[in-house]
Amino acid sequence: MDQNKNKPMRNLFFKIVVVTLIFNSSYLLASSSAARQVFLNGSIHTFNKQLEIIEAISIKDGVIEQIGSNEEIKKIIDKNTSVINLEGKMMMPSFHDAHSHPIWSGIDQYKCVVSELYEIEGMRSEIKECLNSELTKTTGWLVGTGLNIGIFPAGNPNKSLLDEISTDIPIYVDASDGHSGLANSKALELAGITANTSNPEQGIIERDPNTGEPSGTLREPAAMNLVRDITPKDTDALYDKGLNFAQDLAHSFGITSSIAASVGKQHMATYKRAAVNNQLNLRVITCLSFGGLFVRNSGSFDDVLKDRAQYSDPRINVDCVKIFIDGVLEGQTGAVLEPYLDSGNYGQLYFDQDTLNHAVARFDADNIQIHTHAIGDRAVRSILDAFEFAIAINGRTDNRHHISHLQMIDPADIPRFKELGVAANFQAAWALPDEWITDINTPELGIKRVNKMYPIASVFRAGGLIVGGSDWAVSTMNPLVAIETAIRREDPDDRIQGVLNENERMTLVEMLKAYTINAAYLMHQEHLTGSIEVGKAADLIILERNLYDIPIEEISEVRVLETIIEGKTVYRTE
After folding, report:
1. How many whole angstroms separate alpha carbon 66 and alpha carbon 561?
2. Which residue of 89, 294, 418, 574 has the fewest CB atoms within a 10 Å radius of its CB?
3. Around Cβ 380, how many Cβ atoms within 10 Å?
4. Is residue 73 within 8 Å of residue 57, measured between CB atoms?
C-alpha cells in the first residue's frame, strides 16, 4: 500500500455494524422505493457556497428536488410522500474519502490482524493464535497485517518475534505503514534471502550489524515482495469479500465516495463485478499503480491503462494513476532535503527527475488525473517540479492532480499548491505526537523539522485546496477522527499526550469541506455531489449530534445514524 506511517485504529474500526431497520412514529425511515422523500425539522448544513443551514429537504427519484423551510417543503407533501422527522438532528452531505485502499484493506481483515496493539507480547500472542486459523491450516502460511513497528527500537523488529511462534511454518506480517514487513526464518529461507542476498533496487533488507544475517525486517515493496510473491495468492472470492467489508465500513462512517489508491487489474475487475451485480454502493476513482512495485501480478501497466475503459461504470472513474515519489521516514526511505541526522543519507526517490517529468506530462496530456504519494520535503518538491513541467508542456488542464500524505513540505513550496492548482491530500489522523513522531522521527530529523510536520493550515492559508483522506487501513477510515485531530493536533483517544504544531490547527468548517465539497471537486463530481443543492444526487448523512454544538474533544465520538446515496439508505444504526 502507499501508506506513510501507521496510526492506531480504533476498536470501532473493525466492527461491521449490523444495519437494523426500525420503524416508529417519530422517525419514519426513508424507503428507496418512494418517489419522493421529505426530511423536516432538521439542522441541515448544505455546504453550498453560502454555507446555508436549512430546516427541510425533499428528494425525488434520488435527486434533491427542493430545499428550504419546513413550511416550504410541507407544501409538496402528498399521500405518497415518505416523511422523515429529523427531530433537530444534523444532516449534511455524505463524506468522500480522497485516499483509501478499500479492497486491499478489506482483504486484510480476513487474515491475521494485529493492529491496535502497543505491546510486543500482545502482538506475539495474537499471531500465535493465528497458527490455528483455517486460512493458515489451508495454505500452510501465516500471513498477517497491521504490525505496529513504531513500538520497536528504530522501528526495526526482529524475526525472533516470529521464530518464537514457529520456525516450521512460514510467517510474514505486513507492517501497517505498508512500507515494511517482518518475516520469520522459514519465510526468509523459502524466499532465498540470506546474508549474501543484495538489497533489491529501491528496497532494503535489514541485517544484523555484526553477522550480516537478515534480521527479518524488509523495507519497501522491492524487498517485501521477495517474500510476498511466494505467499498464497488472494482469490477473486476474497477480493469480493474485501470490497464488501470496506464498503460496509465506509457506509458506517458516512462515506459514499472513495479514491482507491494503487489498484491493479484484479482490483478494477472486482469493482466492475460489483457494479454489474448492482452491489457497488460507492462511487470509486480507481488509480492504477504506475511503477509496478505496489501492485503485483496484475498485468502490464500500459496494457491495463489502455484497456481500462472496460472497467468504467457510472460509479467507477478509471481515469487516474498513482505514482509513488518516495518511501517513508521510518526506515529512512522518505526523500528529504536535509539529511537524516543519524545516517547522513537523504532517503530515496523512486524516479529521477527527467523520468518523472515526462511521465507526469504524458498522463496529463492524456487527461488522466495523477495521484501521488510524497512524504519527505524533497519528494514533495520533486513532484511539484514535475507538475510545473507538465504545465509548461501541455498548458493548464482540468485534471485536478493531487499529492497525498505531505508529512514534510519546505516552506518555499507551500505557495506552489495554489500556483500550480495541485490539491493537498492530507491524512489528518496522523497529525499528532505519537510514538512514530517522538521515538522515530525526532531522533532521525530533529525537533525543528518535526514541529513543521503536516502543515495543513499553512497550505490552506496560502490558498491551496485541502482535501481529506484516510489511507485506510493505515489509520481509521472514520472522517470525524481525522477532523478532530486536524482541529486539535492532539490524540482524540487521549492515549498520547501533547500537541503537534498547534500553529497548524484547522477549523471545523474547513475540515468538513475537505471531506465534502472539496473532495467531491477533486473527484470531478462536484456537479453531482458534495453539497446539498437542487439537482444534485441525494448523498446525505444524519448524525446523532450537531458537530457545531459540542466540544471539539467529542467530535470523533459522534456516530453516523444513516447514510444515503442517491436517495437510497445504505446504512442505518439502531
Report:
1. 23
2. 574
3. 28
4. yes
**What's the pLDDT at 147?**
87
Q: Report in angstroms the alpha-carbon separations of 535 from 58, 74, 526.
A: 11, 19, 12
Distance, CA of 516 to chain centre = 15
Residue 194's contacts (CB-CB under 8 Å, 6 or more residues apart) are 188, 213, 214
Where does 402-516 have alpha helices with state H? 416-420, 435, 442-445, 447-450, 456-461, 479-488, 508-514
> Can you give the pLDDT at residue 296?
58
- C-alpha separations of 550 from 241, 553, 557 in Å: 37, 8, 11
Which CATH number among 3.50.50.60, 3.10.310.70, 3.30.70.2190, 3.40.1160.10 corresponds to the domain 11-16+103-228?
Answer: 3.10.310.70
Q: Residues 418-443: pLDDT tens digits?
A: 999 999 999 999 999 998 899 999 99
Mean pLDDT computed over 34-42:
90
User: Angle at which helices 353-365 and 377-394 pack, to 10 degrees?
Assistant: 50
236-252 helix and 265-276 helix, angle to the nearest 10 degrees: 70
The residues, any chain, with a CB within 8 Å of residue 282's CB and separated by 6 or more, are 102, 247, 250, 255, 256, 257, 258, 315, 565
Query: Smallest Cα–Cα separation from 327: which of 201, 475, 221?
Result: 221
Cell of 230: 511466494
Cβ–Cβ contacts within 10 Å for residue 523, how many? 25
**Around Cβ 487, how many Cβ atoms within 10 Å?**
20
pLDDT tens figures, 4-25: 444 433 333 333 333 333 323 2
Q: How far is CA 64 from CA 56, 89, 533, 555, in A?
A: 11, 19, 7, 27
Domain spans, the chain: 11-16+103-228
Summarised one tens digit per residue, pLDDT across range 392-410 is 999 999 999 999 999 999 9
Cα(485)–Cα(495) distance, integer angstroms: 13
- Give the whole-angstrom CA distance, residue 75 versus residue 228: 62
- What is the value of pTM for the model shown? 0.89
DSSP line for 66-115: EEE-HHHHHTT--TT-EEEE-TT-EEEEPEEEEEE-HHHHHHHTTSEE-T
